[in-house]
Specification:
This protein has 7 helices and 12 strands. It is an alpha+beta fold and 314 residues long. Strand 6 (142-146) and strand 7 form a beta hairpin. Helix 1 runs antiparallel to helix 2 (61-91) and helix 4 (213-223) packs across helix 7 (292-304). The radius of gyration is 27 Å and the shape is elongated.
Length: 314
């Protein structure tokens, strides 16, 4: 569907969103006509001085009231169901997405690809592949908005948010920050390049060989001293991180938590908030010592060893 005043519809989400939007618009226009058309007709028909039949028609009021209450309720519930379905498909990414990290910072967007490519205010993507964005902010609330894909997601400091979409058309599109975030908010924008899969591969391998996100994370893991405790340490009793990702972790208060991005984020920044069962709360916080970009690299590393078994049980 293209419409001159509308941005291009270049993702699967865009098609679904537009469909719902035009349905709501059409339905509103119908109700508008239903109210205003008779109103205008009656304006002339029953004008003062006109000879018209003004006898009370004795409508069964109760029946009329009930009918025009019940029917719209079911119509609204129908719209609710369609909206809820669209919402769920938008919130739950399919398997096998291409994972890309987006970090908002006054006033730019930094992008990290798993292969190690980094870009600022530019986002290169292959066409026809579902993409999942993990969004983080270094400072204030931003919002990542790609009109042609009909996606908009708040980027909130202190947590990750996610968003997924599947580009359907090769082309160049714009993205914006759509949450007022200070003096240069209006300059916080960039360009999405949707390439063919081969062009995308060429783009990824262009330039000098680089460390993947997980390799950079592994280097940080050593530089920051994480390995000193977490890898076969004699001095500190710390849990091995191999095989941790997405597994259920028992905590010392008897509950369990899934070791997802959020849990790992909190383990590094707020280590005392959730203590793994059988361990002492001795891990120092890295809050203020590492950037969101480094945090995402560490998570990529922990994820990459998610299927390994620990070398030695401490
Ligand atoms: C002083 C030793 C020490 C250092 C340094 C350290 N940790 Fe830890 N870490 C621990 C201990 C002890 C625990 C278990 C207690 C807890 O949950 O806080 C832990 C828990 C964790 C957990 C949760 C693991 C689980 O099985 O639930 C993660 C993830 C983690 N650390 C990552 C890191 C990363 C990444 C770094 C480096 C940025 C790091 N740690 C640095 C000692 C340390
Ligand atoms: Cu912003």
């Amino acid at each position: 569907m293209t419409f001159p005043i509308f941005p291009k519809a270049a993702s699967t989400t865009a098609v679904q969103t537009d469909y719902l939007y035009f349905m709501l618009l059409g339905f509103s226009a119908f109700i508008l006509a239903l109210v205003f058309f008779p109103m205008i007709v009656f304006l002339f028909k029953y004008r003062r001085g006109k000879k018209a039949n003004r006898v009370d028609p004795h409508l069964p009021e109760m029946k009329v009231e009930v009918t025009w209450t019940i029917i719209p309720i079911f119509i609204s519930l129908g719209f609710f169901a369609l909206g809820a379905r669209a919402y769920f498909t938008e919130e739950v990414p399919p398997d096998g997405t291409l994972e890309i990290n987006v970090i908002g910072k006054q006033w730019m967007w930094k992008i990290q690809h798993q292969e190690g490519n980094r870009e600022i205010n530019e986002l290169h993507l292959p066409v026809g592949r579902a993409v999942k964005l993990t969004l983080a902010s270094e400072d204030v609330i931003h919002s990542f908005f790609i009109p042609a894909f009909r996606i908009k997601q708040d980027v909130v400091p202190g947590r990750f948010t996610t968003e997924w979409f599947q580009p359907t058309q090769i082309g160049v599109y714009h993205f914006y920050c759509s949450e007022y975030c200070g003096a240069d908010h209006s300059k916080m924008q960039g360009t999405v390049f949707v390439l063919s899969p081969t062009e995308y591969q060429n783009w990824l391998t262009r330039g000098e060989p680089k460390n993947s996100l997980a390799q950079s994370g592994e280097n940080l893991f050593r530089q920051l001293g994480c390995s000193g405790c977490h890898v076969n340490s004699q001095a500190v009793h710390a849990p091995p991180l191999e095989g941790l990702y997405e597994k259920l972790v028992p905590l010392n208060d008897g509950t369990f938590v899934r070791a997802d991005d959020k849990y790992i984020r909190d383990s590094i920044l707020l280590p005392n908030s959730q203590i793994a069962a059988g361990y002492q709360p001795v891990m120092p916080t890295f809050q203020g010592h590492i950037t969101e970009e480094q945090l995402l690299q560490l998570i990529a590393y922990i994820k990459s060893i998610g299927n390994e078994t620990p070398q030695k049980n401490p």
